[in-house]
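[Q] Does anyone have a clean structure-token version of this?
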Amino acid sequence: MNRFLKLAILMLVASCGGGGNYSAPRDLENACAIVAERPAYYRAMQRTESRWGIPVAVQMAAIHQESKFIGDARTPHQYALGVIPVGRQSSAYGYSQALDGTWEEYQQDTGNRRARRDNIRDATDFMGWYMNETTRRLGISKWDARGQYLAYHEGRSGYARGSYRSKGWLMSVANRVQSRAEMYHAQLSACR
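[A] Here you go.
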């Protein structure tokens, strides 16, 4: 096969895909619309609820807060002198905005070495794993979206130290996560 033909085939294959659909669902205020538009999301969250006991509505509210359901979400860049990019604020990535180190801990603990943060099944399983361990270590109910979110954001050690108490903005965010989980739960109960 000549070089030109090999190059043409390679370019054709490369243009056919590789990238996932990382855009957000159209209506993030309606759990039923999210489920209808992205049934794979719902199946992934149901699987996580079955495995780890974290309610679908709590998962949805946390994912909404972390990434707005955008699979390849990243934290913003930081800039030196206001114009020179010097990297991202953190290594958080994907639906769950998991940090590199915590993701690696999840992969090792679950044996899921191939897990990807931009895969909804893996991201929800990660959240379930993390929140289940939070319940085990800190006693936070799996239905307590506010408490689970605070421990998720601050880390379990930070939560145990009460680091969130001095962050009024974070308390407001956690309250919104709780309200959203309650809203999603009511919507999911009505649309089933």
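[Q] Thanks! Anything notable?
[A] The first helix runs from residue 3 to 15.
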